Description:
eight-stranded mixed beta sheet; 8 strands
Amino acid sequence: MQQIPPPHSVELEESVLFSCLVDPTAVQGVRGILAGPRDFYVQRNAWAWEAIVAVADAGSAVDYVLVRNELERRGQLAEAGGAAYLSGLLAGQGNPLNSLDYARQVADLAERRRTIEAASALAKVAYNSDGSFAADKARIISGLSDDVVQRSRTVTAFEAASSLYDTVAYNRANPLEFGAVRFPSTDIADLDRLLGGVCPGLYAVGAVTHTGKTAFCLGVAAAFAARGQRVLFFSPEMPADVLLERLICARARVDSEWIDSGRWRSEDDYRRFLDVQGAVADWPLLISNARDMREIEATIYRQAPALVIADGIEHIVGALREKTHEARGEAGKWALGVSTDLNIPFFMPMQVSLKAAQKRTDNVPEEADLYASAEVSMVADVVLILHREDRWNVNPATKTHAMDVFLWKHRTKKRRVPGRTKIRFGIYGEIGDLDQSGGTPPPPEF
């Protein structure tokens, strides 16, 4: 009887290696998925993966020459098939954008092989009558469990205490000036005091429609990008030029109507707009209209940003369920995983129930009004609720163009207070800063 080979795919393994050779930034994402060289069924592919990881760990950009030299140094190049083997990998088919999908399928096949091996081993010890079945069974099952949790890290209380001591000692030796923060600043003093800066984690930003979620997130993105930190802004709904126009108009205190009509209030306003536009053009700000979760995830790992904002999460498709509430909850778990893996802040603007806010006399939404609030609140590190009185006030004479930010949850207890903590500020600056350009400037665009 012909023996059936264990589950594997040479093509998928070579596609993973191909992706890493042609796109070195793919290595980081793939490493977060694969357990190591043992996930490769073909031995020479396992050697190639070890060489790629070694080159990356040395701080070098992965390429054909460095990987070939590393294989040769290890004495594995000739047995793997020589330079022709690596050349064959480079000539392979595949798309580096799909590197994470390739890696997931390779990891899945590897897990299937290990499960088959464990099942076979269990069958053998089950027939064993020497009295060691219970111990052998526990050992085999424990091995399978280790495969599941191998990417997590367990630390002792001593290690955690040592890390905490180092942090406390460093902060004591380097005290903050008043108003400064340890984590990246939002460039809005009150918001920094509320959050302590933008630390890594998942930020759920909720508000009713037309309140200014996108404007708020653009302000945070601008603070990062202006300091030279790479920002990825995903917007399936709004074109990149429209987003950029809103950002520039807000920072330059320019009314977008002046752009559309061509009638500017003054020459100084026009020049200020051009100055801000020129500065923003050089920022490491990347805007994408991708709406497929796999494509978005691949882009994030490839670009290695300091901040990710995924606006319009309701429109992201891929590994989501059909029901909208379930999709939001699942998207939140996915975003948290990306944030945790890369140790970066991930902002996820979300809709709040308009009907729930309308029932309150002050129209201020609460955390429970978030769609899929239970799922999102459970996984989010920070929950912010935005409110703007102008959203409900139809009298233009009394509009303040200021926004209230309510902090409902923060994962560090020093930032968490009973109920909610509120601050008020003018978008992209303090309320007192709104008239810095002289006269009464136009309101920021929402």
